[in-house]
Each structure stands twice: as structure tokens, then as C-alpha cells.
Known about the structure:
This protein is α+β, with helices and mostly antiparallel strands and 211 residues long. It is built from 3 helices and 6 strands. It has 2 domains: 1-101, no CATH class; 103-161 and 171-193, no CATH class.
Amino acid sequence: MRTTGEGRVLLEPNGPSLQPDRLVALPRLAGPRVGGLPHDADRFIPVDDRGRVEGADGVWAAGDCTAFPIKQGGIAAQQADTVAAAIAAQAGADVEALPFRPVMRGMLLTGRAPTWLRASIADGRAADSVTTGNALWWPPSKIAGKRLAPALGAADADAAAEHSEGGLSVEVELQAHPAEAPGLERRAILAHVRGERKPRLLDFEPGGHGL
Length: 211
């Protein structure tokens, strides 16, 4: 694609000449093409549903280098969990190596309160999608992962404690009925669950607290 200098765009090599009002161009994703491992036409590593590299014995892969079409931190964390379980099971550990079942999670910044999004992915399509104004996982970090998110949350909490300037923890009992303040009820439940200070990942089901 190239511009002709008069507000027109020529689609190469043999495409038409267009005069669009607005043009948006996106880069094409390309994988790392790791030497000695198989790769597809876009240089990504093909893996099965447990992260094993196709055609390479004893090799697993997870994350953006794989041929899974969605590149996202939460998806990569789920792939890593799948691969870790598969490797542990092959090494003789008493764990169940479940297949990769991706779930997309995201937080949409709206300029006001954020909107939380979640959808399962099966056969290349989204299913069981949920949109809500309440957090769908905990801690509500950028990357939602079964083990990674709690680890990042604990690291953030430790860093905040180290850099505090003599702050004083205060507990205040709020008089509000759960039916009148559903968000308050959720925060209270989370505070109870996190009583040991170490955060945990909670994936809420639609219409409930998932505890």
C-alpha cells in the first residue's frame, strides 16, 4: 500500500486506487522463528492443547511465540499454567495436566468507572461473555493469571509497605445493608478472604461472588 500524493491510496501489488476519508493501518504480527523448532508461515511455534511443540519431543512453549492467534498477557499466563502442569505430570508429579482452555479477561477504561470483560474462547469464537461494572477477578491487576496475578499483587503490597511514610492502618465499620450497596458487600467479602494480607485470584461468576 502506498499513497499517490493526491489523497489517494494504491493497494499493491495489483489493487485498486482508493480515496478514503480516513485510513487505519495495522502491522502484521510475526513470530520469533526460534532456531531448531518448527514454525508456521508467520514464524510462530505450533503447539498442541497442552503446550507441547509439534514435532519436537520434550519441548513446550507458551506465550506470544506460539501460534495461538490472541496475544495477551492473561492468555500467556494461562498457557504457562497449562505447560507447567504438563511438564510436572510427565516428570511424575501427582497433578492433572488439563488442556488449554483460554479465557479472555480485560478492563475497559471508560473515563469514569472501568468496565470489566470476560469471555471463554472455543473453536475461535467467544462464548459465555460477561460485561459488568464490578471486578471479575482478584486482585484486579492488569494481568489476570491463576498464580501470576496474586504474585504481582503481593509484590505491589510489599513495595508499598517498604515505601510507606509512617502510615496508620485504620478499620472503620460501615453501616450499610448489602442490598443497598452491592459493591460494598463485595469489598467486604474480599477483605475477609484476604485476611492473611496475601491476595488471591477470585474469578466471579455472573450474578454472584464466586466464593
